[in-house]
Amino acid sequence: MTGQLVFDPLLPWSAIAVLGGLSALGVMLALWRGLRGWPLRFFAGVVLVAALAQPSFQEEDRAPLSDIVLMVVDKSASQRLAGRLQTTEDAAATLAARLEARPNTEVRRIEVGDGDGDTGTQLMTALSAAMAEEPRGRIAGVFVLSDGRLHDLDRAPNLPAPMQLLLTGREQDWDRRLVVSNAPAFAILGEPVTLTLRIDDDGAAPRAVQAPLEIEIDGGEAQSFTIPVGEDVELPIELPHGGLNVIRFSTPEAAGELTDRNNAALVQINGVRDRLRVLLVSGEPHAGGRTWRNLLKSDSSVDLVHFTILRPPEKQDGVPVSELSLIAFPTRELFLEKIDDFDLIIFDRYKRRGILPSIYLDNVRNYVETGGAVLVAAGPDFASADSIYRSPLADILPAEPTARIIDEGFRPKVTDLGQRHPVTAGLAGAETWGRWLRQVEVEPGDGEVLMSGVDDKPLLILDRVGEGRVALLASDQAWLWSRGYEGGGPQLDLLRRLAHWMMKEPDLEEEALWAEASGQSMRIIRRTLEDSVGTVTITKPDGTTEEVSLSEVSPGRFEALYEGPEIGLYRLAEGDEMAVIGLGPAAPKEFEQTIASGDALEPAVNALRGGVLRLEDGLPSIRAVAVGRPAAGRGWIGITPREAYQTMDVRQIPLLPAWLTLLLASAFIIGAWLREGRR
Asked: Which residues are registered as beta bridge partners of 351?
């Protein structure tokens, strides 16, 4: 039980001060006039002013509260190295027993594991959350059992008691890590891209001048190099293909190092073409002659060379050649010497007129077989005796003309196969497409018919020849869609997809397997022209495999969601299709620095006069220290007893009851009056 004097004023303190001042002035005036009762006036004023302050004696019944010690136990991934976790558990159990054996002391244990995603160790976040649930006036100390590698130091709370760091790990620990410090997200095909990487040895590492480096692209065979340790190395790499390229850098685990989890790094770079070179060969002029030109010129990444026939040889109008063109078109250079520089050649209503000799067209055939692409937009010329089918190109074209031209309106339709092919899959509004007015009848060969026209006759046929690709559009009426005839149609989407498929854009491959990563999850996607697919075999970073079944989400597209159990490189295989993908960084944030160190927490610990002690030197003893005194020393750490309490009952006894105030004030006033009345 404790007691103290308290005041419960009837008026604001400012008003009481004014009344007290007026009372003092009255006493001073009485003294100045020589009135003998001025002392009694003074005591009367004191009694009245004191009564307004209403003093009381307050007694409290208090129950003492225990001190709380917060023990933060780091159980993150880096703590599972080299026996650190067992050391931490043993130390935490011993410390908790010692603290609980002290009188009036409680322990709150806070375990911190791996957070969601690659967030690292969130020690201070967990400590702040724990402090929010405890009264600050009872916290006597904070013990942190960790390797000191945390990633949220900026969230350190304002502590009312000392913080102690009990450091795991050993002074002789060392680790080798590989870091890629500069890697672009995109790179141009055919041009080297420079990556900057570095191999560092941390801790008590043995002296090493060089270290081996292995590089794998898309899970292929590793290439080995030797690079200096502790220096930035610039490495030029040329991407092998368009789309996503997964590059893995690694250095083998060295004897004695803590872990190999930071010995590798994954880099994912999208390969893009710098410029797409297209040769457009226009034959007989027609209403849609500018369709292809406008389409290709609208794409800033396309370099277009347009070869057009202004006057065929049979036309004799007497106009000098010098008035028709400024320079002769370099046909030999284009079709013999520079043909391999083009990604796509388009023949738009072109027929043989002796302008391009057979040797040129034979070279076009060779160009396709060695990896080039040719697209034929056919009109009546394709059905004539001068058709380019009656040339060396017949060996590569996917359909043969029957010489029949169908001049009637029809609505283009996507075939069942076309519903599955990425060139025509998902083209919107097929029911409202406008009609085309002419079609060349053809007999398809080994190609794939994606669209049909009159009486389901082939309209769009694609084929692969050797390493190249060919396509035949058996109509010259696609321009009607761009003009909005009868509502038009997806002319731009269709022709753009067609051109990009011809140029082997990865997004338009009809047989493909890939995955899209989101954190530790991946969406596995298999596109095929078949009705079904087998299971996907997933090879995990540790070498084990798992089978995953896919479900069809749209014609020709099968998908599955897969949760990767660990961070690293995953290999996917289904039939002849293979893919690789990296989930998360190969070296997570938790393993960027693995050598135990108190450098990060030391400023916060020193500010509260705590200490950083290594558990390998032995478990420190615990002492009670006063506020503001050093809370750590050689072999000991301290807590600050808070002497907190809970008030159980409060009693107040007025020092000036009303009757006593009235009696005293009246006595002093009457006494002053009687004394001053005697002369």
From this structure: 387
